[in-house]
Specification:
By secondary structure, the chain is mostly helical. It has 6 helices and no strands.
Length: 146
């Protein structure tokens, strides 16, 4: 019995406690990590939509709609049609800052007056049904007296 105990002590001295269990645990952890990585990759592949022609078409239409909406807000704010590309870049920057589309368009129109369209006064002509208020009646009356 004494020899068994001394042999056990010698093997216990040569092996550090936890060496075997640590190497087994390390291998198990590595295997578990590999399995988890594979599962995560599979889940990500499932979550990513396939780039089908329909998905591409939807994305293109979404971008076009966004551009049209941007131009509409800018035109309503008074931006000149010729200056829309420059105003659109400013609009996107301001929208990224968290402003609403209406606020961004108004701020661009106020801050950058050279982008605004020039409004011309259009003369208004009135045509009355009786002919009393127009200039032709006065001219006719002058010539009618002669």
């Amino acid at each position: 019995m004494q020899t068994d105990v001394t042999e056990n002590n010698k093997t216990a001295e040569n092996e550090k406690p936890g060496d075997i269990s640590e190497s087994k645990a390390g291998a198990e952890q590595k295997q578990n990590a590999d399995q988890t990585a594979e599962q995560t990759a599979e889940q990500n592949a499932e979550q990513k939509p396939e780039t089908s022609p329909e998905a591409k078409r939807i994305e293109e239409l979404s971008e076009k709609l966004s551009d049209a909406e941007t131009k509409l807000y800018l035109l309503l704010a008074g931006i000149a049609k010729e200056k829309l590309p420059e105003a659109t870049r400013l609009f996107r920057l301001m929208s990224k800052e968290g402003r609403t589309p209406e606020e961004a368009a108004q701020l661009i129109a106020e801050s950058y007056p050279y982008l605004r369209s020039v409004r011309h006064e259009v003369p208004r002509f009135s045509a009355s049904g009786s002919g009393d208020g127009d200039g032709f009646t006065a001219i006719r009356s002058i010539f009618a007296k002669r």
